[in-house]
Design goal:
Blueprint (H helix, E strand, L loop, with lengths): L1 H30 L1 E9 L8 H5 L1 E6 L2 E6 L2 E10 L6 E6 L6 E9 L2 E7 L15 E8 L2
Antiparallel strand pairs: 1-2, 1-8, 2-3, 3-4, 4-5, 5-6, 6-7, 7-8
Length: about 140
Amino acid sequence: MRHTILVLMFAGVCVAAQESDDAVKKERKLFQGKWQATFAQGFDGKEQTDVEIQLTTMEVDGDKFTMKTGSLTVSGTFTIDPTKKVKAIDVFFGNGKDNGILGIYEIKGDTRKSCFALPGKERPTAFRKDKGFMTLEWRLDK
């Protein structure tokens, strides 16, 4: 009996993991391509100017991204969890997993928004545009 329960529990975990993997693959496809910023606010609470916004683009390929703002280029990787009540995104800069920030995201059609907490802080639970949070909004370049 104990063996049967363990087998059923393991099978349930495997099915749930498969559904989660499928959800991530499906959702990650929505991130792909070149994005143009439409709004950006830094951790200091200040919004970028219209000129800075026009110069801010991001290209996503798989789980890798390259963001450019004028002459500044930042690259890294990201992971997502679309199964969370508020969809979660973790961004890692450079080649490592040690220098990441925790955030949330939403994609509707060709628009995407993200909100990130300061490094070392807990993930936001809602989209915020105040000091201590970085908020980015994008439009897919077609």
